């Protein structure tokens, strides 16, 4: 039997879009059928950058132009930005599987499922880009999501706090506004995709909440104060409203955490 960790590394290494999507589908299928052993592990090798296509060109976020949604090109640039997030999210989910050992089988099952979801989200957005006359890679992008993976590679507790519960939770906050803007521009096709992503990302953030609290319990640390400290240290830039309190509540943020967000609204 092959190991889940090796399958996860193969997905991370895959450089082309087609190879990464195919490797993800194959690994998720094999894991669901008990063909990959999650228990047998070896020391993970540091990953400076996962496999990815030569394009898009990665630039500082300040170098990314703002584009309106009133044209096909503007909507394509918007769809491309979301597709880039989803492409990175595939690698982030597989890295959560690959990097961290000694966790329950349910942890690995959660992040394999997340990887498969993110690949499906990317494929939906890729098809939408093509319908608008563009390809993934036609616009520049930034590398902020993977940079956070590097900052949290040492600690699964920090990873669960700062990737699903901070960066991905920010998507829960901003996606409803994106959907309304696209509706005003009559882009029902992109709206339909974002509604699927928003609904399913709640479960991804909830997985982060579940395993963050699991880690806190085993280390004997208080979750709310630990989360605030990690946000202040690593992710201060995401501490601003508006916040989608309903979605965050469904994703495992408790009443104390939701009240605390009011200070940053």
Explain how this protein is built:
This protein has helices at residues 4-13, 17-32, 72-99, 105-131, 144-151, 156-184, 188-219, 223-234, 245-250, 255-261; strands spanning 2-3, 36-37. It starts with a strand and ends with a helix. A two-stranded parallel ribbon has the order 1-2. It has one domain: Ferritin (Up-down Bundle). It is globular, with a radius of gyration of 18 Å. α1 runs antiparallel to α3 (72-99). It has 265 residues and is an all-alpha fold. The model has no long low-confidence stretch (mean pLDDT 93).
Sum up the structure in keywords.
single chain, 2 strands, 66% helix
Overview in brief:
The chain is mainly alpha-helical and 265 residues long. The protein has helices at 4-13, 17-32, 72-99, 105-131, 144-151, 156-184, 188-219, 223-234, 245-250, 255-261; strands at 2-3, 36-37.
User: CATH class, anyone?
Assistant: Mainly Alpha
Terminal Cα separation, in Å? 50 Å
Task: Give the percentage of residues in beta strands.
Answer: under 5%
- SS class: mainly alpha
**Number of helices, counting only DSSP H or I runs of 4 residues or more:** 10
């Amino acid at each position: 039997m092959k190991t889940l960790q090796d399958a996860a590394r193969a997905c991370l290494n895959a450089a082309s879009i087609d190879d990464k999507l195919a490797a993800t589908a194959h690994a998720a299928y094999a894991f669901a059928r008990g063909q990959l052993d999650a228990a047998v592990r070896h020391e993970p090798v540091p990953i400076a950058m996962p496999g990815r296509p030569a394009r898009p060109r990665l630039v500082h976020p300040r170098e990314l132009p703002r584009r309106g949604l009133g044209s096909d090109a503007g909507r394509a640039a918007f769809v491309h930005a979301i597709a880039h997030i989803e492409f990175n999210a595939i690698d982030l989910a597989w890295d959560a599987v690959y990097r961290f050992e000694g966790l329950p089988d349910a942890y690995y099952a959660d992040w394999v499922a997340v990887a498969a979801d993110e690949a499906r989200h990317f494929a939906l957005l890729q098809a939408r880009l093509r319908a608008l006359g563009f390809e993934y890679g036609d616009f520049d992008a930034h590398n902020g999501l993977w940079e956070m993976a590097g900052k949290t590679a040492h600690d699964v507790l920090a990873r669960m706090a700062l990737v699903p519960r901070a960066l991905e939770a920010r998507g829960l906050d901003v996606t409803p506004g994106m959907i309304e803007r696209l509706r005003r521009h009559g882009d029902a096709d992109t709206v339909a995709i974002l509604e699927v992503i928003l609904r399913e990302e709640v479960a991804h953030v909830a997985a982060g909440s579940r395993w963050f609290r699991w880690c806190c319990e085993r280390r004997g640390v208080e979750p709310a104060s630990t989360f605030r400290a990690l946000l202040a240290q690593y992710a201060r830039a995401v501490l601003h409203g508006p916040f989608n309190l309903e979605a965050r509540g469904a994703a495992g943020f408790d009443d104390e955490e939701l009240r605390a967000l009011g200070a940053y609204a």
